[in-house]
Amino acid sequence: MSTTSPVERPVLQVIIASTRTGRKGPAIARWFEEFARQHGKFEVVLVDLAELKLPKMEAVTIPLFNQYINDAGLFEAKDTHEKVGRELLDELCKWAVALKTIRV
Fold first, then answer.
1. Full-prediction pTM beyond 0.85?
2. Predicted confidence pLDDT, tens digits, the chain (104 residues)
3. Which residues fall within 8 angstroms of residue 69, CB to CB, at 6 or more apart?
4. Which of 5, 11, 60, 69 is the most buried (most CB within 10 A)?
């Protein structure tokens, strides 16, 4: 894992978009937040839309996520999640560098 100086690191906002009761997004977002910090090339900020006091929108539970959340409410990442997460962060780094000259 290589790191760059904090001044050069782009900000990566990990957004928890769900505001509904029983949401699973926070567990996944917290895992990805830590995963991105360990990646070392971003200043990572966790943003939870529930903290903005938006109206709660109830939706159907997505069973796919339930299989990865343990009894303590933590996301248990599999090798595939980590591989895809690493590829995503590496691509974001490339784009951050490519677009650096047009950032204000």
1. no
2. 555 544 578 999 999 988 888 888 899 999 999 999 999 999 999 999 988 877 666 665 666 666 788 888 888 888 998 999 999 999 999 988 888 888 76
3. 24, 27, 75, 76
4. 69
CB under 8 Å to 74, separation ≥6 — which residues? Answer: 27, 30, 31
What distance in Å separates the CA atoms of residue 1 and residue 12, rounded to the nearest whole number?
A: 17
Q: What is the 3-state secondary structure (H, E, C) of the chain?
A: CCCCCCCCCCEEEEEECCCCCCCCHHHHHHHHHHHHHHHCCCEEEEEEHHHHCCCCCCCCCCHHHHCCECCCCCECCCHHHHHHHHHHHHHHHHHHHHCHHHCC
Q: Which residues pair with 48 in a beta bridge?
A: 16
Residue 82 near residue 35, CB atoms below 8 Å: yes
Structure tokens at 49: 């839309």
